[in-house]
Specification:
This protein is α/β, with parallel strands linked by helices and 174 residues long. The chain has helices spanning 10-29, 44-49, 76-82, 102-114, 130-139, and strands at 32-36, 67-72, 87-96, 119-124, 151-157, 162-163. It has one domain (10-167): Dna-directed Rna Polymerases I, Ii, And Iii 27 Kd Polypeptide, Chain: A, domain 1 (3-Layer(aba) Sandwich), CATH 3.40.1340. The protein contains five helices and six strands.
Length: 174
Amino acid sequence: MSNKSGKTTERELYMPIKEYLAEAFTQRSGNCHLEITADGVFSNLLKKVIRNDIIFTFLRRKASPDLTGFIHSRGSELVLTYGPSLVQDFITVEIKCKRITPQDIYQAKMYGDLFQAKYALLISSVPIPEEIRRLDKQIFLTYRFMSGWVLHVGEWCVDEGAVIVSNWIPRAPF
């Protein structure tokens, strides 16, 4: 699971992170639907449940969350029939294989705000820089002012295939 230089690529992390998060949110909330949307392709199910479909005009192949999904109260087949009324919360996830920067944080916050996602996540396979942790404590970098929710920033451990639970900032989403 690596490129010629021996490093894991961002694209290679999509599926394991999607599976990990779907399981974690399902354990916490009962039902979770997540899709890989990094290429700007959204399923008909996602298109049906997105309340403000105008956001798709702003999302392009190079400007879409890596993962998008939702937590719902019943099975996916009923969500397709009844649409947004069964969706409890939306999820957006941006994945990085590099040191997180403030620009990455603002990008992930933008996706969360566009989708009105309660759970906006930024996950990197590189440890979260101490400067980001300190900046968050000083100016609430992960706070999403439009909604009052926060951006959850986590560190993915490639060897374990999981987010390091104790490293979330400002806190774990589940």
